[in-house]
Design a protein that fits this description.
143 residues, 2 domains, OB fold (Dihydrolipoamide Acetyltransferase, E2P), alpha+beta
Length: 143
């Protein structure tokens, strides 16, 4: 008799453990589905218009390298091969011909620090990517 009760108790205990495992598994699946749906709703690249170009106000470029620039308050912008950099501080040629190609410069020739206006779009991961940089004024470096 005790042996029958022992087997019955062990069977109930095993069923109880199995039921708890199934409940935990179902809860984990439901939570992961909820989190993935919630993550899609907050993903910045979902329903994002990649062609929207924004323009900054006058900003001070304080640092540069080959692929990015930094403006005041530690905000970084990516610079690509397609980025056009226009230096408006350069005087036109003697013949008076003003052509925008004459004012285009490379990132290496970008004067730092300088006041500039930046046309940019938001790239993947919500990182700003420069489309055009207009150098408005050169700033003399302090010694």
């Amino acid at each position: 008799m005790d042996r029958e009760i022992g087997r019955f108790g062990l069977m109930l205990y095993n069923n109880f453990i199995a039921l708890r495992c199934v409940r935990c598994l179902v809860l984990a699946v439901v939570l992961s589905c909820f989190m993935s749906i919630n993550g899609l709703a907050q993903d910045p690249d979902v329903n994002f218009e990649p062609t929207a170009i924004m323009q900054s106000g006058p900003v001070t470029i304080i640092w540069k390298n080959k692929v990015s620039i930094c403006i005041e308050k530690e905000r970084y912008f990516l610079v690509t091969k397609e980025t056009t950099i226009v230096d408006k501080t350069v005087a036109p040629k003697d013949d008076g011909n003003i052509d925008s190609k004459e004012f285009e410069i490379s990132i290496e020739k970008l004067p730092v620090p300088c006041e500039a206006t930046i046309d940019y779009r938001m790239g993947k991961g919500r990182h700003p990517v420069c489309e055009r940089i207009f150098v408005e004024q050169r700033i003399k470096k302090r010694k």
